[in-house]
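Q: Hi! First time doing this. I have a protein sequence and I read that you can turn it into a structure. Is that right? Here it is:
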Amino acid sequence: MDPSESESLPASSSPINSASASAVEDPLSSPYASLNSHCHDLSTLQDLACRGAWRTILDKVARSRSLSLLSRPHEHLIYLTFNVLALVKLRRFADAQQEFETLDDDLGSKQYQFESFPDQYPNNKSGSMVPFALRWLHAHLPFTLGDRQLSLDRLYVLLHFIRDTKLSRNRDSVTEISIDLWRKRETFVINSIVSHHLTLKEFKVCLYLLKSETSKLEDPFMVSKLGYVQMQYGDLEGAKRSFELVEKMVEKSEGGDANSNSNSNLKNLVGRNKALTYLVGKDYVSAVREYEACMERDASDFVAINNKALCLMYLRDLSDSIKVLESALERVPTVALNETLVVNLCSMYELAYVNHADIKKTLSTWIARVAPDDFDTSCTRI
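A: Yes, that's right. Below is the predicted 3D structure, encoded as structure tokens:
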């Protein structure tokens, strides 16, 4: 999720979205030359966010505000978005809420439209200047403050906004890049909604949402999500059918060549689905084999790394399971440094070593040196 993406901004092919603006309805047709030409020092904020330097972002936003370096309305909104995201990442939810209190609760208000500031935005520029990430944070934040229902209501409103305002437009007036971007945002919001319902084990709602989506789009990741929910619900046969459908989708996208070297992400999705089926059936040896194949295609596949280690632990091979996780932390720390993986590693230390306290202390010291600001260090104190 990129805080700098406003509804009149595009996404580039890189993980960091580049900014754009245009007077026409589809802003993707007229991109800016650089991030910084769209907003003051935006490239630095993007870089800091990618490195997890959230405290530095707070300092930078505060300095830019105090020195009046933000001259246009949309710049204030972009910096506010980064500030709120940093506060949420650092689990300072009450402070994030205070930031939102400086805004109108209606993010569709005219005061957030480019056309309300003709002197600032000439050439008849129109549309909302509210970044998509700010809309999502506005929906997500109530959940962190204990108001689950308000969060869900806002997420459904955001989903309807995407569908009714963005995806229902005349296809002749927008580019395929824009449509693809909003499709991804739609999927992101749906996954957020499903996750909320899953926390309370509302499986039927999740199944209804996912089946509705998979009937409209051939998205192997969404169908896999359906299979995971079916598995949690106890419908193992239904999950297997979903996973088989995913495999057929992937084979079709590769022209039926299951051994193609392309689409490693999709191949790993199929592999992880197979492994999960084996894991549920307690066939840990076969699961390990599938996870190893995923890791050969992508050495940074965090899910495969973590689950392979768990399967080895279930096979009572604690030594190798610890080696798998330690090796991942050494090879790809930016990917493997995840609270779930660290919790599992610490649990294995406790099972394998008498002096596990000293070993976990060494791990904590290393984590403190390399982890992003939002890493929860309490996960080593299980």
